[in-house]
Amino acid sequence: MTRFPRIIAFSLLVSLALAVSILFDLFPLVRGHEILSWQWSYLEPNIRAIPLIISTFIYLLIAGLLFNRRPRWLMLWSTIGTIILSFAVIYVRFDNVLYEQWLRTVSGLTTGPHLAGAVIDWSSTRTLTQWADMMWDFDTLSGHIALSPPGLPMFHGGLNAILENFPAITAPVYAELLPNQCHNFLMLDYSHAEWTSSLFGVLMPLWSALAIFPLYACANRLVGHYAKWVIVWWALIPSLLIFTPNWNSLYPLLALLAFWFYLVGLSSSHRFKAIGSWVISGFLVSLLTFVNVSLAPLPGVFGFYTLLHYFRNERHDKPFYRPLMIGVWFGLGTFSVWIVYYIVSGGTTPLDILDVAMGRHLGQERLYLPWVVFHFWEWAFFTGIPLVILWIWASGKQVLGLRSTGSVTAISVLLTLLVLVISGTARGETGRVWLFFSPFVLIGVVELFHILNLQSRRAGWMMTWAQGIFMLSVCITIPAVDVLDFTAPPPAPDIITDTRPIDVTFNNELRLVGWQGDVIENEFVLTLTWKARQQILRPYWFAALLVDPEGNPAGEALVWQPFETNYPTTCWQPNSFLSDQVTLPIPDDAIQGDYWVSLSIIPEVDQPDTRLPINLPDGNQDIQLGLGPTNYTHSN
After folding, report:
1. N or C terminus of the chain with fewer C-beta within 10 Å?
2. Measured between alpha carbons, how far is 503 from 505 in angstroms, rounded to an integer?
3. Is residue 424 one of the residues assigned to a domain?
């Protein structure tokens, strides 16, 4: 009892010193180094961090007030706090928080599953049977998908298929989201459902916050009332906040559900209930490995836990083969999803996908010894040094006193991490990739609270505030996520006012309010001034055909996207005016006289015979508009 508060005080002092160092970049080595070919950028603290600081203070203050109440109120507040803090972290760098969250979701560089789910042809048998080969095709679209099994793209593909049945929902959502990437022709090919499914990523802070419930359930099973601390701590994990909406933020939810079922099996006296719980636990782990190969080490945590728990708590009253029996049932669940995939895909095994993923992953050259340290350090850095210090202490207690002290959870995670870092299989960004280990660190710390019967609430809150301060130092100064593959919508083009007035409506969406035809040497320069009457939901194509005085076509029709595809009609804002200008060549043998231009709008470029209906000034309708006359005279 006398030494434990000292470790909390030590954690507090180290964390505060490190937080100051991070804020003022006193030791850039904590962010990586050139010798590692990896270093996180540094963002100098600025006034935009104030909302995050205030939100953290309020979160901790209200958590303290709710700590003595029923856990459900604390879990509800922690859920809200996780969401608010996630968005406050984004605001440190970006004005439009929801837009940035959405942009990260649809970006192949930042995430990738949404993009893959939209562009993959799920009706093709090659998609599942040759996924290992298809992984190479994603190299230019998303490096994340190029290293992953088909689980996440399949999820988004399935979500898209479901949403296709609800056009009343997807159509207005699409219209609302469209202006955000109105110029992105990759996304303009998406269906309304595929645009709508991107909202799943926007809500990622909510999904990741739900991990609080199985986290508390697991901790409560192990330590009773001490479990309340994990509820407070979850919202203070830097990697959980700073890497949103990456799917790594969601993996802890499933990992904790798997651990909860595993613990139910350990404590059950009913044989079939225990077996069922272990199989379900393994199934959830199987699901995780099917969505990302980075989750492959998770069974190691369960394996070490099984052995340590048996030798510490069960070896005197349970048969010696009990760990093996647990491993068999858990292993059956772990391979369940892959067995189904093997059958459906016609023989694709986890090793086939792992071979491609690791071949590409390990192709990134890294210096072994420095990275042995830095891989562990980065994960600890983004988990939170205050918690990690106590977790290491809990692991040490387990090693030094196997039968009576220490945390089985803590040492299970530590042993798994040691295997990982020594193997050299990681290649940077472990703070994000190994986030699924972080909730087990929280459980390990509260297990130590329980074992030492820590009664000092003050000591617990000292550590909690230290974690909060450290989280702030990381989230304020480390710009961890960038969207480089998607640009912002372009500004509206200028208006050309010196045109002939006209009032013609195309499909009740576009009004042609001015036009001008000028002959310059042997070219016909056509200027069109438009007014968008509403949000246009498709990137229309325009067609112009020059007609000579005898009514014959003068050359080929020009089919074009407005402003050389840089500002398609999907970007035209309602009630806005803009002018487009194109050039039609005049044939060398063209006759002199009055020329006309036949103008039409094509909804789909692959259906050139389809035209938008036109309401002419005289009340008639047509599918083409004649603009003229413009006189042409041969130049000498």
Report:
1. C
2. 7
3. yes
Of 418, 470, 412, 422, the closest CA to residue 443 belongs to 412
What's CA 314's distance to the chain center, in Å?
42
Q: For 555, phi and psi rounded to 5 degrees?
A: 95, -170
- Between residues 273 and 39, which one has the greater pLDDT? 273
Per the DSSP assignment, residues forming a β-bridge with 625 are 599
Residue range of the domain that includes 135: 109-204
Q: With contact defined as beta carbons under 8 Å apart, do 407 and 447 qualify?
A: yes
Choose among 53, 86, 426, 417: nearest CA to 250.
86
- What Å distances lie between residue 387 and 20, 346, 403, CA to CA? 17, 46, 24
Instruction: Report the side by side order of strands in the sheet with 510-520.
Output: 577-585, 523-532, 510-520, 500-506, 614-615, 621-622
In this structure, are residues 586 and 522 in contact, taking their beta carbons and an 8 Å threshold? yes
Helix (H) or strand (E) holding 577: strand 577-585
147: exposed, middle or buried (Cβ count in 10 Å: 0-12, 13-18, 19+): buried
Domain membership flag for residue 350: yes
**Separation of alpha carbons 528 and 138, rounded Å:** 40
- Calculate the dihedral angle through the C-alpha atoms of 4, 8, 10, 12, rounding to the nearest 10 degrees: -170
**Are residues 31 and 178 located together in one domain of the fold?**
no
Distances (CA, A) of 25 to 19, 101, 126, 193: 9, 27, 50, 45
CA distance linking residue 187 with residue 485, whole number of Å = 12
pLDDT tens per residue across span 338-392: 999 999 888 888 887 877 777 665 556 667 777 888 889 999 999 999 999 989 8
SS3 528: strand
Q: Are residues 313 and 404 in the same domain?
A: yes
Note whether 235 and 373 are same-domain residues. Answer: yes
| Structure-token pair, residue 169 | 């929902």
E strand or H helix at 302: helix 298-309
The confidence band for 398, taking pLDDT boundaries of 50, 70 and 90, is low
CB 156 within 8 A of CB 127: no
Please name which of 142, 67, 182, 94 lies closest in space to residue 535, comparing C-alpha atoms: 182
8 Å CB contact between 628 and 622: no
- Other CB atoms within 10 A of residue 254 CB: 19
Q: How would you classify the pairing of strands 593-602 and 625-632?
A: antiparallel
- Give the residue among 385, 389, 386, 381 at the shortest CA–CA distance from 428: 381
Q: How many domains does the chain contain in total?
A: 3
Task: Tell the burial category of 167 from Cβ atoms under 10 Å away from its Cβ (0-12, 13-18, 19+).
Answer: middle
Q: What is the pLDDT of residues 606-624, one digit of tens each?
A: 777 789 999 988 888 999 9
- DSSP H or E segment with residue 212: helix 212-223
pLDDT band at 110 (very low <50, low <70, confident <90, very high): confident
Q: How confident is the model at residue 116 (pLDDT cuts 50, 70, 90)?
A: confident
Strands (E), 150-190: none
The DSSP letter of residue 67 is T
Is 483 a member of any domain?
A: no
Q: Tokens 């139910």 correspond to what residue? A: 264
Q: Let me know: does 254 contact 289? Beta carbons within 8 Å.
A: no
Neighbours of 183 (CB within 10 A): 20
* Domain annotation covers residue 486: no
DSSP assignment of 304-349 equals HHHHHHIIIIITTTS-TTHHHHHHHHHHHHHTHHHHHHHHHHTS--
